[in-house]
């Protein structure tokens, strides 16, 4: 059976929770902000949505990347939650296994095979939650996970069966009011979340930037709450 949505068993005071409610938060820092990679358009169709969903405004777009190459077009999300998986469809969602790319490296192929049930992304009143449904860790970075008034990025490692609030609406509003606009090392998007599958990045890894990760997601949040 598919696990329940993450918010049904979480304490709002804890950043990350597993099924048994024990604490298992791992983190490390990244000393440099990543530049937005160049987009390579794919020859893939846009994600389909139901007529009822089309009547509502979307709350995020999801881009799938392999290293510095974006594979496929943006997947627009209208429902309150969406499953992002490889080739194990459980209802509606974003199937990454259907996105083809010529000359895919063996490293990417191995990582894609580890995505499995992937993640459940859920929009809640307090923010956006991601639940790791795969059998391997995911790694998450977002502006609201960073330390306030510090340019050092924080990347969270989320083990299988755990969920984490990847974006906090209240913190985001505070950050946008006090944001330092001097980002000389590249574009800065205060409403984006980056999630890599199986492979982490940062000073603790050979991969310094997320663009070195074989398979990762860019969650582009809408300003509509």
TrEMBL record:
CDD domains: MH2_SMAD_6 (cd10499)
Matches recorded under Pfam families: MH2
Keywords: Transcription, Transcription regulation
Region (Disordered): 1-53
Annotated coiled-coil segments of the chain: none
GO molecular function: I-SMAD binding; transcription regulator inhibitor activity
Domain MH2 positions: 59-225
One Gene Ontology term from the biological process aspect of the record: SMAD protein signal transduction
InterPro entries: Dwarfin, SMAD-like_dom_sf, SMAD_dom_Dwarfin-type, SMAD_FHA_dom_sf
Compositionally biased spans, kind Polar residues: 22-39
A Gene Ontology term for the protein's cellular component: heteromeric SMAD protein complex
Protein's name in the database: SMAD6 protein
UniProt organism field: Ceuthmochares aereus
Source lineage: Eukaryota, Metazoa, Chordata, Craniata, Vertebrata
């Amino acid at each position: 059976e598919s696990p329940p949505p993450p918010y049904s068993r979480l304490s709002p005071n804890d950043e990350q929770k597993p099924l048994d409610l024990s604490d298992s938060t791992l983190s490390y820092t990244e000393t440099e902000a990543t530049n937005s990679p160049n987009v390579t358009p794919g020859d893939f169709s846009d994600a389909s949505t139901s007529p009822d969903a089309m009547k509502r405004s979307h709350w995020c777009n999801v881009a799938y990347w392999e290293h510095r190459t974006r594979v496929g077009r943006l997947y627009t999300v209208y429902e309150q939650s969406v499953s992002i998986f490889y080739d194990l469809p459980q209802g509606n969602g974003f199937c990454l296994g259907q996105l083809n790319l010529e000359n895919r490296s063996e490293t990417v192929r191995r990582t894609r095979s580890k995505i499995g049930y992937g993640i459940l992304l859920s929009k809640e009143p307090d923010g956006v939650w991601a639940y790791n449904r795969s059998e391997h860790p995911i790694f998450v970075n977002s502006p609201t996970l960073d330390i306030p008034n510090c340019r050092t990025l924080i990347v969270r490692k989320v083990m299988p069966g755990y969920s984490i609030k990847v974006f906090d609406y209240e913190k985001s509003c505070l950050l946008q009011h006090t944001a330092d606009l001097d980002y000389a090392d590249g574009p800065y998007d205060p409403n984006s979340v980056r999630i890599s599958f199986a492979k982490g990045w940062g000073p603790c890894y050979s991969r310094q930037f997320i663009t070195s990760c074989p398979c990762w997601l860019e969650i582009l949040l809408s300003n509509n709450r």
